[in-house]
Amino acid sequence: METTDKDYIDAKLQAVIERLNGDARAHQLATDARFVQLNQTLEAGLKSTQKENELQRAQTEAYLQKVVSEVTRSQSEITKSQGELIKWVAGISIASAAITISATTLLVTQSTPKGPAPIVIYAQPSPPAAAPEIDKPDGARK
């Protein structure tokens, strides 16, 4: 081959290489721009999602605080109700025992046959004793 042909081919090859390198750089720049745009879109989406998650977490925490306070209030009411219930059960038990004892006593008292009335003899009071006669100084008697 002649040097002119070789130079021509080298020049053509160099031109093709430069064109391919230019196309590759352009493609690389376009790809980088797409990646930058994709990253920005993802970051915006993630920030939006993060804000939504934080809002939901705050709402959930507020709801949980409400539930905790409600449970605490319910526990105190249950404790109070248990105390009242114990008082009522004790009172009803005592009242039932008193009524049972009273009813049993009444039935036992009324069910036993009464014996005949006892015979009572009253002693008649004895007449008062006569006063002894006293002598009077003048000698008169009654």
From TrEMBL:
It comes from the Bacteria. This is Uncharacterized protein.
